[in-house]
Amino acid sequence: MSEPTPVPLPTIGVIVVAAGSGTRLAQAEPKAFVEVAGRSILARSLESVFGMTGEGQVVVVAPEAWLDEASTIGRTVAAGAVDYLTVVAGGQTRQQSVAAGLAALSESVTTVLVHDAARALTPSALFDTVVATVQATGDGVIPGLAVADTIKRTAEGFALDTVDRSTLTAVQTPQGFPRAALDAAYASAAEDRTDDAALFADAGHHVRVVDGDALAFKITSPWDLRRAESLVQASVHGSVGAADDSGQRIILRTGIGIDVHAYDANSPLWLGGLYWPDEMGLAGHSDGDAIAHAICDALLSAAGLGDIGGRFGTDDPRFENAHGEVFVRATVLLVTGAGFDIQNVAVQLVGNTPRMAGRRVEIEQYLTETVGAPVSVSATTTDRLGFTGRGEGLTAIATALLSA
Ligand code: CTP
Ligand code: MG
User: What is the mean pLDDT of the chain?
Assistant: First the structure.
């Protein structure tokens, strides 16, 4: 007899409200399903939630018509913790969506956090802080940031007076509450409020402010979306680890590719997608472009997509006598189609000819444009040793770095 799967009885619940339409973002899909650098806003938010230290039930509140999509995203991010995931339909207003999430919490939950999916880059540590503060104090807890701008009261387009900004705090999510008190506050809510803390305070409870995080900003406008994209990209470029400063998990993958071709005095030389007049050519089924082929193998190996021989068979007429660039472009489409961003490619040519120095800038520019990411090219000889040293052929070795 097999062991029954233990049902999780978490004391923490996180409601991720993602049922808004994103009117101000003005994209084809609802805001939570819009992508930031290749991954949906909802996926990125859930990465942070599932990165919390304490285990908790995660309730995703999605638009009715997007429940399947939300479940797929939720299951992918939750992976082995899928039993902690619940997906329910939201309502017309944010408050109604939160209420739907509250109704889906399991009985065991005593501390509840409410989080806007639109705050896609919120660090996991902020969730941990809010949970710990609710549990230590029994109060409502909201992350806040001091207001940096001078704030003025205005009327009909004119400034009236300056508000003392030291008394102001810009409020973020996740907002945390003792579950029973928040349930009661929702049950007796008289009017629609823009955040849960206002409703909680209406019911007579204390709301404490903890330090927020600049990364917890809400993606509201297309400008915010672009800003989020550049923050994600900057963190990918600056990171070699499994998580960046914001707690987002980044997958980096390297790949390697090697190609060897014999010289053929009767063929023109095509190398790195360029024609090299007056240079000894290379033998091969296609044009023998060892640099292009090594780049393809490095990209495919990094993406786990096999190799050039397996992807572009010798019997495929599209690739008969095709130039190396054709293979590189087709490979880039495969790799990006599989969800990867190419970070860079490096190639080294090993052989006596051609001399790379004179055309290095040109070949690097050409390949960088073709690959859509920086490609660096270097060259060496082998001190007359081996087949390259004897001038029988050349080798190209490439590495590629991908991110997802
Ligand atoms: N939200 C929700 N249900 C609603 C309205 C909003 O779950 N009926 C969620 C949004 O998905 C978002 C969060 O509440 O994660 C904050 O709302 P906001 O930033 O205003 O998002 P939208 O309402 O989608 O955007 P807009 O106001 O521009 O339409
Ligand atoms: Mg809204």
Answer: 91
Enumerate residues lining ligand 1, CB below 6 A.
17-25, 31-32, 61, 90-94, 97, 116-118, 218, 220
The residue contributing the CA closest to ligand 1 atom 10 is: 20
The pTM is what?
Answer: 0.63
Distance 165 CA to ligand 1 centre (A): 27
Report yes or no: 203 and 140 within 8 Å, Cβ to Cβ: no
Q: What does the alpha-carbon distance between residue 56 and residue 12 come to, in Å, rounded to a whole number?
A: 5
Indicate the pLDDT class of residue 337, thresholds 50, 70 and 90: confident
CA distance 67 to 71: 6
Nearest residue to 167 (alpha-carbon basis) of 186, 193, 189, 144: 144
- Centre of ligand 1 to C-alpha 106, Å, is 24
Q: How far apart are CA 269 and CA 246, in angstroms?
A: 48
* 88 Cα: distance to centroid of ligand 2 (angstroms): 18
Measured distance CA(187)–CA(113) in Å, rounded: 17
